[in-house]
Design brief:
This is Glutamine synthetase. The protein is α+β, with helices and mostly antiparallel strands. It folds into two domains: 98 residues, Roll (Ubiquitin-like (UB roll)), CATH 3.10.20.70; 239 residues, 2-Layer Sandwich (Creatine Kinase, Chain A, domain 2), CATH 3.30.590.10. The protein binds adenosine-5'-triphosphate and 2-acetamido-2-deoxy-beta-D-glucopyranose (NAG). 2-acetamido-2-deoxy-beta-D-glucopyranose binds next to strand 6 and strand 8.
């Protein structure tokens, strides 16, 4: 009898743990929901407007009905929201404008419905503090003849709603890092359903996702976006992040972009950024790459400040010089060196053309700020701690 009581108790405990780690709305019947999602909607189109809130990393969204399918961004109306509820303005003059900037297919409500990424303007139509797209676009246009390409590797960690990494023992730790990177098997890959769902949803939406893999820490994953030209790098990465949050919501768990979600001997999360221009991709482009790296070396602090939403404070927890990172206080560059700030891929070193990888951006970076900073330093020859006003 004792053992029966014990196993009933264990089962019950297991149940409690699962209940605690996933959200209540995830328990609602998805089969019942499907009945409604399949209803015809006439000529109406649901457009979900998405924007970055006042934290510079949080995303917000709301939906409106359009009476016909928008074919391009010009067909989408401006909208507004209450900025005092998104850390974006004080109570008076709290109306903020949403300016449609990029449109994708909606993988949740499906065609003809849309996801609409927006820029945020204040009541006086000046750009909101965390709207980094506005200047990024301006800077990209200044050098568009160079045809800049970016690729970004977004690392993230899946957490339960209790903030504990998904699938980790409720009091304790999984086995040390080693078997998890690109791992397969129930004891190595924690939460693959989310990764698979996110990948398909991005492809459906038209987000330029180019790969995914399990990362070094269990429950940590990566997806790659690119190559994207100019401003579209930020657009595609932000929408990929939105889709990830939304997929995680369906499963009742949370995606964290914190650069060091677990302290101690566990890898942090970054957003390595590949960068090239036409000149770098042509024969002998390595020379241009080396010139860029020289300029970047002279402006390390400016970049560190641009590479996370807290001016470098978030990244300070991650860039320790350990766990495949560089030290936040030192700039370094090297061929195939994963411990450097900037890495030149081995093939690029051999072929003497291609691209380089900036390994400093934090997982919660704003890709508009990162790509803008790279262009300012490498191609507008800016120096010093402040960006130039053009
Ligand atoms: N900004 C960019 N500019 C140019 N090429 C890019 C950029 N971003 C990504 N790429 C592409 O990424 C590819 C590198 O991906 P791949 O997985 O082949 O790397 P790899 O050569 O295996 O790297 P490694 O040798 O370090 O393992 C390049 O072939 C290149 O076309
Ligand atoms: C960046 O380059 C690396 C090789 O240096 C490659 O493995 C990775 O897939 C590229 N990522 C993106 C997003 O382009």
């Amino acid at each position: 009898l004792r053992s029966v009581v014990k196993s009933v108790f264990l089962l019950f405990r297991c149940f409690i743990v699962i209940k605690m780690a996933t959200s209540a709305s995830a328990q609602l019947s998805k089969v019942v929901k499907r009945q409604y999602m399949e209803l015809p909607q006439g000529d109406n189109v649901q457009a979900m407007y998405i924007w970055i809130d006042g934290t510079g990393e949080g995303l917000r969204c709301k939906t409106r009905t359009l009476d016909s399918e928008p074919k391009s961004i010009e067909d989408l109306p401006e909208w507004n929201f209450d900025g005092s509820s998104t850390y974006q303005s004080e109570g008076s003059n709290s109306d903020m404008y949403l300016i449609p900037s990029a449109m994708f297919r909606d993988p949740f409500r499906k065609d003809p419905n849309k996801l609409v990424l927006c820029e945020v303007l204040k009541y006086n139509r000046k750009t909101a503090e965390t709207n980094h797209r506005h200047t990024c676009k301006k800077i990209m246009e200044m050098i568009d003849h160079q045809i800049p390409w970016f690729g970004m590797e977004q690392e993230y960690t899946i957490l339960g709603t209790d903030g504990h990494p998904f699938g980790w023992p409720s009091n304790g730790f999984p086995g040390p890092q080693g078997p998890y990177y690109c791992g397969v098997g129930a004891d190595k890959a924690y939460g693959r359903d989310i990764v698979e769902a996110h990948y398909k949803a991005c492809l459906y939406a038209g987000v330029k996702i180019c790969g995914t893999n399990a990362e070094v820490m269990p429950a940590q994953w990566e997806f790659q976006i690119g190559p994207c030209e100019g401003i579209s790098m930020g657009d595609h990465l932000w929408v990929a992040r939105f889709i990830l949050h939304r997929v995680c919501e369906d499963f009742g768990v949370v995606a964290s972009f914190d650069p060091k979600p677990i302290t101690g001997n566990w890898n942090g999360a970054g957003c390595h950024t590949n960068f090239s221009t036409k000149e770098m991709r042509e024969d002998g482009g390595l020379k241009c790459i080396e010139e860029c790296i020289d300029k970047l070396g002279k402006r390390h602090n400016y970049h560190i400040r641009a590479y996370d939403p807290k001016g470098g404070l978030d990244n300070a927890r991650r860039l320790t010089g350990h766990h495949e990172t560089s030290n936040i206080h030192e700039f370094s560059a090297g061929v195939a060196n994963r411990g450097a700030s900037i890495r030149i891929p081995r093939t690029v070193g051999q072929e003497k053309k291609g691209y380089f990888e900036d390994r400093r951006p934090s997982a919660n970076c704003d890709p508009y700020a990162v790509t803008e900073a790279l262009i300012r330093t490498c191609f507008l020859d800016e120096e010093g701690d402040e960006p130039v006003d053009y």
